[in-house]
């Protein structure tokens, strides 16, 4: 039996709580950690410029509640992509990364999830891919200096939608500080992926795992990559988790939800927690004990 930490994404929680209230709620709901978000909104990008006092207040709330954050989820690069045709945007993308690394160090976060897009809103080209590779190398160098791991997430985008593709970039940029962050929903939604082989062949690259359900891409449907109720999508969670347990995967899992603005986010989280508690028991995964 493997023992794994289970976390919850920040955007799943009610959004009107203080940090101390959020951390306490994470424990009350039966999770080991919170996954912190720096998305493309002005509000969350502003966290990159928190003052020393704001960072200290956040750390104190975390320490007082005996909490931790395993991953900083950096989706802000959708707005400022590493592969942009605009040199000013590329420069901003590197600035965002450096600030994220410095914030992670100050908050005690060891892993930054990097969105696997060359560009998001722009047209994809061979050049956008080249800029992505060039700037990814710079980002890894920045992170290595501070001993922070960058983990590329498998995405809702064909640019990087499998661990096999992440392994290709790791082969070009050889560093222990560049890893993969598979999203079980995203890799399952793409029909070209053999999910079992993708996980088995690349387990050594996996820093953490996202638990999310999706609806598969078909010739007539672009797929649905968010807000699919657990158990109603295309992900074979029991099969994936049973395999990860067999492979002795000991990293963390994060339940990825966006229920924070719903009428009853706590009720939705409890429902998801029961879903994964049952699966963990069936496949032989024990959850790490919750900190007091």
From TrEMBL:
Keyword DNA-binding annotated: no
Protein keywords: Isomerase
Signal peptide limits: none
One annotated GO molecular function: L-ribulose-5-phosphate 3-epimerase activity
InterPro entries: L-Ru-5P_3-Epase (IPR004560), Sugar_Epim/Isomerase (IPR050417), Xyl_isomerase-like_sf (IPR036237), Xyl_isomerase-like_TIM-brl (IPR013022)
SUPFAM superfamilies according to UniProt: Xylose isomerase-like
Keyword flag Isomerase: yes
Domain Xylose isomerase-like TIM barrel: 23-278
A GO biological process held by the record: L-ascorbic acid metabolic process
PANTHER family for this protein: ISOMERASE, L-RIBULOSE-5-PHOSPHATE 3-EPIMERASE SGBU-RELATED
NCBIfam families named among the record's database cross-references: hxl6Piso_put, PRK13209.1, PRK13210.1
Protein's name according to its UniProt entry: L-ribulose-5-phosphate 3-epimerase
Organism encoding this protein: Levilactobacillus koreensis
Taxonomic lineage: Bacteria, Bacillati, Bacillota, Bacilli, Lactobacillales
